[in-house]
Write a structure and sequence with these properties.
Elements: E1 14-20, H1 35-46, H2 58-63, E2 66-74, E3 77-84, H3 85-90, E4 106-110, E5 116-120, E6 129-133, E7 137-140, H4 149-158, H5 162-169, H6 179-186, E8 188-191, E9 204-208, E10 216-217, E11 223-228, E12 233-238, E13 247-250, H7 259-270, H8 284-299, H9 307-312, H10 320-335, H11 342-355, H12 359-376, H13 381-389, H14 399-411
Parallel strand pairs: 3-7, 10-13
Antiparallel strand pairs: 1-2, 2-3, 4-5, 5-13, 6-12, 7-9, 8-9, 11-12
Helix pairs in contact: 8-10, 10-11, 11-12, 12-13
Amino acid sequence: MPSLSGTPTSPTKSSTSAWSSSLDIEPIAVQIPPPNICSRINDQVTSNPALARPLFDFAEHVRRRSYVMHNFTFEDFETSVLLDQGVDRMLSEVFQPPCTPPPYTFEIGDAGDKGRGMFALRDLPAGSLILVEHPIMVAPYLVGLNVPLADIYADLLGRLPLELCKEVVKLYSGSHPTLEDIFCRNALGIQLQVPDDPHPELTTHRAVFLNTSRCNHSCGPNARWEWDTNTFALYLSAVRPILKGDEITIQYISATSPQHERHAVLQDQYGFLCHCSYCDLPSKAAVLHSDNTRILLSQFWNNLPSFEEWCVDQTLPDDVLVKLHLDALRMIKQEGLQVLDGERHVDAIAMCYGALADADMFRAWTERVRDAKVKADPAQALVFAKWLSNPITFPAWGWRKTLCGRMKDDSL
């Protein structure tokens, strides 16, 4: 695993190369792809909500791109990047120091038909940090150059030390791998800030990691990764308890889609069919039940009365929100979708009991919120201690009773 500094890291941009699709910059001359290719790519981008570009125009995207290729050096580790010049200029000259994960949390080992995988070296509690890692290579989601991707990826790879090159090649377990296979099938989609320009670069970029890219996919993953541009690093943490020897898995795609849609995307983008325990179900009825549950979870927050609406709406039962959030927690556990942030439901339940002025239940659920949030932000400990010792100090204490009572009095 890369050695991460405990002090601010100043990345060294070395041996910068210019790659451009601008008309006035050589050696790459602009060449707009044929209309049929532009149309196909436009459809792919505009139909992908994760990319958030409903008006994307690939021809204009190509015309306006100008790239730089260089390395970031982090102590004894290097990252090779191809970035739009505007994106590169927006990156900090000095990255903040990433936090240091606990030692001996994982190892890379044989995962059977899936090739290599990541496995827990010891029991990992929910919420625990597994690793912090810089990417080995980064490139735009779409490269607007009339240059074969294999050539671009070869240049990126060639900028790395030989030992790192060998590790990158090992990421692909299939026979006769191409650099496109290695890069695209092992990359994770990170977000980088882009300039506020007409037809800007896509915020999504492809990033390859020596360790996290070894994590296999599951439709009920036990770990979640988060990207932080300020440290230029990925943080992998457990979303539920992981036992020693268990495989550590992540989701490559949205896991709330129906099974047939997940399988189609995984086959198209990553070249495999998922056989995780959440896909290999015993019957068509079980698959349908799972699909419907995942759809309900994906739409949950869209169909929910707000906390404020519930506080003043006398037609809504006192326990309606609590029951809905408890049902969501049950569905999350059933489908192994703790990546959907079950803590948000726990937080909502605690707030509801506070609004109902139910001190015992408020304390019980607030303790769960505290245990989760204080790990990430120890400064919140004093706030939770205050609420637990004296619940009426909770800002929304008794709102449901007070506001509904007031509304009832006004109607008389």
